[in-house]
Amino acid sequence: MVRVHSKQRVEEVAVAPGRYGALRIPAFRMWFIASIVSNIGSWMQIVAQGWLVLQLTNSPFYLGLVGLVRAVPTIAFSLVGGVLADRFDRRRILLVTQAVAGTSSVVLALLTWAGVVTVWHILTIAFVASIFFAVDNPTRQALVPDIVGRENVTSAIGLNSAAWNGAAIVGPSIAGVLLTVVSAAGLFLLNGLSYLAVIAAVLMLPALPQRASARRSAMGQLADGLRYMRRSRAVWGLLALIAVPSILARPYIQLMPVFARDILGRGSAGYGLLMAASGLGALAGALVTASLGGAARRGVLLLSVTLALGITLVGFSESSSFGLSLCLAAALGATSTLMMSLTNSLLQGIVADEMRGRVLSVYTLIAGGLMPLGSMLLGSAGAAIGVQLAVLLGGLGTVATALLVGWRVADVRRLQ
Q: What percent of the chain has pLDDT over 70?
């Protein structure tokens, strides 16, 4: 059942949790379309911003620094964002975060058009915007069951992931064409305007169920959330299952240029093909998640996918054939996306509504915060022992994690 809210009454409408069932819910359809528009704008800005930083500094160091300053707020403020998502109206939070994100892109566009932009402007704006994104992410995730009901959470999460991964293919392509036509400033402005689509979708959402008003302090609520996660073996088992691959496996993408140039001998063209294969695989993985509907034994499926991710990474690290590497890159994209999307949907299904924001803030912290740290770890290990061996060890660590959690945490195996 999905609740449809109006000012006068709440009605219950049956929506079967079949394939892509979330799309049958009008509110989610608006949200999904708005997400596609906004995600394309975000990818356009990522491309334009990287190009502008390189023009201003001619230094790969600053390209990496932009990624770091975007990751720090995720680590520092995600837990706070989870508390806010459980404490206040989630729609109002999103209106604020989306407005700030859009405004930051417009400010960057104006600075660039005026010819006064510096790399420090870019770093500062990226840092400030990322603080609000650290609040936006757990709120956005926690809002999904409010829109579609628990029965369609898996479908909705898969579709949201598809919207992001599909935009990862379309957005950079559009940016590459428009960069010479409207310049980086024009792309920043287009991204700023794209947030209006999400703001409109949020404004059109029906009223959400009222949660009990918070009587605890924010710090008390945070402590309650952490205790809740510690007591639930299924919750901490799921979080542990994705934490290790987020450090050891998912950062493989940052080392793709080394594999393309130094191991496979294919240069920039080969690098582009490997990235495209990974992106297409990720999109396929998201669509598979969306099609699962009410599939049974998703805990076992998650463990199997995580195991497959580790094995595939081991194979990729040892491959010297470009054709085989393309296939493995696609499989890595698919299994990585499936792992994260399945974990998200399982968490959404078992967590109490009043704790959802705080639990998903830890998920956001792991998904968005640990991966940059893993990139630094894997890169440092690659410099010390060789990239192939570093990635091989990352794959073996992921395999060991899947086997250990599957063996020791029966609650994860039993999840439906």
A: 90
Domain with residue 251: its CATH number is 1.20.1250.20
Angle at 265 between CA 261 and CA 268, to 5 degrees: 45
Segment 343-371 shows an average pLDDT of 81
197 and 246 in a single domain? The answer is no
Concatenated DSSP letters for 65-127? HHHHHHHHHHHHHHHHHHHHHHHS-HHHHHHHHHHHHHHHHHHHHHHHHTT---HHHHHHHHH
Q: Does residue 150 form part of some domain?
A: yes
Phi, psi of 240 (to 5 degrees): -65, -35
HSE toward the beta carbon, residue 185, CA cutoff 13 A = 11
Task: List the domain range (segments joined by +) for residue 235.
Answer: 218-413
- Enumerate residues 6+ apart whose C-beta is below 8 A from 83: 218, 221, 222, 225, 357, 358, 361
CA dist., res. 167 & res. 41, Å (int): 8
Residues 6+ apart with CB under 8 A from 267: 260, 261
pLDDT of 198 reads 93
Tell me, yes or no, whether 68 and 175 share the same domain.
Answer: yes
Per-residue pLDDT at 18 = 55
CB 187 within 8 A of CB 179: yes
pTM of the full predicted structure? 0.74
* Structural domain includes residue 13: no
| Dist. CA 331–CA 280, nearest whole Å | 9
| Same-domain pairing of 158 and 250 | no
Q: What CA–CA distance (Å, rounded) separates 234 from 400? A: 18
Same domain, 104 and 26: yes
Q: How many domains does the chain have?
A: 2
Last residue of a domain, one of 173, 203, 233: 203
Mean pLDDT of 351-370: 80
Please state, rounded to an integer, the average pLDDT across all residues of the chain: 82
